[in-house]
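Aim 2 progress update. The chain analyzed this quarter is reproduced below.
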Amino acid sequence: MIKYKNHIMLGIFSTTIFIMFLALVLQENNPDNITNIETCTTVNVTTRETTTVPETTTVEETTKKKVKKKKAIDHKAKHPYMIKINRAENFAVVYGIDKKGVYSIPHKAFICSTGKDPESTPLGTFSISERYDWRLMVDNTYAQYAIRIYGQIMLHSIPYQYATNDSLEYWEYNKLGTASSLGCIRFRVKDIKWIYDHCNEGTSVTIYSEKGEKSPIKVKKIKKIKESDPYKTWDPTDSNISNPWKNHTATANSDTKQVPTTEQTSATEQINE
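Predicted structure tokens:
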């Protein structure tokens, strides 16, 4: 009897061990556990990939370079700027002087018009001397912000029929970017005014001819003025408060400038456009 009882106890013990082993195997192969492991792995990988410290550093470095470039112009210099005009491509670039005294910093670029007869716009290096709010031209038109650089050659606005802001020869404005003057260099009012305000007497102006050259700064093209436009006799870039392009109401003769007698020239003193 005792012998049979020992066999029964041994069987129960063996069965218990087998059940425990089977339970352990099933637990290791549980899909939920596998999912948890994969999920944890994915989270860890994602966290590492979204850490983008190098990109942040690059942006900061780029920003610092841009700020440094803007501050590089020596505004305390006697002549902080110089102007280079490409006669062949009809654009002008203003360069700023660096701390070493070299005009190495492209600052602004303007569309312009040189002489339709190329030889009427001389090549060489000149300098700004006289300047006028309005100036009578040789063909009896008027120019706004006229700046003399050499003899009869000047930098100035598009011609006006009168010495008033509302008498622009819009068909001449539409020729900007092409050779169309009588020798002088024409600009939009906004651009020539910037030169007038920032480039003092003695500022160097170099005129050269290099066909196919690209400006170091993008030169904006003009939007041509239509003949049917009611504001066609105004330069769209003119900062005059009465300019209808600026959403102001303008009358035919409101807020216009007249040429002072001291600014007018006699027939023998008239200059080429």
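The longest strand covers residues 103-111. The chain has a mean pLDDT of 80. These observations will guide the mutagenesis experiments scheduled for the next reporting period.
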